[in-house]
Amino acid sequence: MSMIVVQAFTTLDGVVQAGGGPEEDREGGFEHGGWQAGYDDEEGGEIIADWESRTEALLLGRKTYEIFADSWGMWDENAEGFQGELTRRYNRIPKYVATRTLTELGWKNSHLLGPDVPGAVEKIRAEPGGEIRVWGSTQLIRTLAEHDLVAEYRLFVHPLVLGTGKKLFSDGFPLTKLALAETRSLQSGILVNIYRRAEEAEGI
Question: DSSP states of 150-194 as a string?
């Protein structure tokens, strides 16, 4: 069985919208795109590289898929360092997309989940494999949580409050009992927290 893992860069008030760049996602008039700038450090990069080395599939909502397809799906696989390595991996692995609007997907190895997203994800999760990675995709994450499909949340919590923007755990998010499995403080002030479902974390 595969394992669905949500990874997110988040602020103290839980905002996950457009951390990577000012034009990444301006939905709702969001004006703080690129808020991650200034927090990059080698320590955090090594953690992400380790996590991504375990990624065997991507599970994405429509908007995040389009952002990834226009970046990772277009970048040079022969680029040096982590960017080239991750571009090669993301091109190779399957991408599963939850969408009500797209009927075709241009990025290679991409697959539509269809109208029954929880059912499709259940089948994918039941197959042998490693980690199925979820980035962004807040609406999809909520659907996955409603059906108890997320095994782990890995969060880079930045010492920043924005007061506006899409949140990972928005109002109405289903009741979810988690246990803190690991935590690490980086020199940049970021806290790296890993949460697992409480019953699974009891054996840690």
Answer: --EEEEEEES---S-S-BSS-TTPPP--EEEEEEEE-TTS-EEEE
CATH number (domain holding residue 126)? 3.40.430.10
- Other beta carbons within 10 angstroms of residue 100's beta carbon come to 7
Structural domains counted in the chain? 1
For 30-44, how does the pLDDT look when each residue is reduced to its tens digit (9 = 90+)? 999 999 988 877 889
- The secondary structure of residue 53, as a DSSP letter, is T
On whether residue 4 sits in a domain, the answer given is no
pLDDT value of residue 58: 97
Rounded distance between C-alpha atoms, residue 53 and residue 170, angstroms:
29
Quick check: is 143 in a domain? yes
Q: Count of CB atoms within 10 A of residue 23's CB?
A: 9
Max CA pair span of the chain: 44
85-138 residue pLDDT tens: 999 999 999 999 999 999 999 999 999 999 999 999 999 999 988 999 999 999
Mean of all residue pLDDT scores within the chain:
93
Domain that holds residue 110: 57-186
- Give this prediction's pTM: 0.92
Residues 6+ apart with CB under 8 A from 13: 161, 162, 163, 167
